[in-house]
Design brief:
Length: about 300
Amino acid sequence: MAEQQGYIEVRPFTGEEIYLPIWEEESIPLEVQLGCAWHRCKFCDFANDPRYVFSLAEVAAKAQMLAPYMKDRSRVFLLGENALTLPIDHLRGVMEIIGYFFPHAFEVATYARFDDVMKKSADELEELADSGLREVHIGLESGCQDVLDFMRKGIRLKEALEACERLHAIGIDFTFTMIAGLGGTQLTERHAHETAQFLNASQPKRIWVTGLLLWPNTPLFQIAHEGGFEQLTFRQRLHEMREMMAELQLNDCAFVDSTVLGDYTIQGHLPDQKDDILKAMDHLLATDGPYDEVPPIPKKSHR
Ligand code: SF4
């Protein structure tokens, strides 16, 4: 990103690692932004990232560097914690760059927040859909308003549902990430039950569950250290997800929980594989192992 005498030095990726949703591992990862426009969630390690929006010249240079290696890929994922927050003119430019350097890629996906969706007009969302935006990956984290408020997520569930309705109407798919254990011991039952209710009402295309980790550089870590938040054990976390799964009534949704007991991944399609998923969860709940302990503190942050 260094700029000297009209010369811009650009690397394809800024960090040592890139973080893609589990579903986007075959997509072309195109970095358009760093950091998150919200950056207040108490549990989030990414919230510490400084925010930076790459200029279109920088995005084009990154695309040019990636293009020779990505000729067999048909989908682009816009890297950055919530790229949908970028102004429509900028996103229009990004779509043009994608069309120029990746003419074989006809689908685009990105991370987004619900409020990013609500801040775009219907015309802007339609324009993005017309130019290839097929899916947004949204961090729902919980369908329980008290959990969201405690974690300073900045989501009102009523507005979140409106955002889902807008996306359904325009034909842009949406995937949710949710966090098992985010309510701690105090709110676990409501986290399971009210998240299931929200998922049933919103009907996402896919759900990716990950387990809560207490990153040392987050406010939640400090709160837990002072006794204001009690983590679930691995087994309690799985029990919570089992409770949620039992209540799901989804019409057509892929489900993955990639942190079951810290050791396993459970995945399947709903509604047809719901019973199989529940059986797998019951089997693992009865498994012996060090699963009545809380997950360990990560040794280092994402960066
Ligand atoms: S959880 Fe998402 S919205 Fe919240 S600070 Fe982290 S990246 Fe931003």
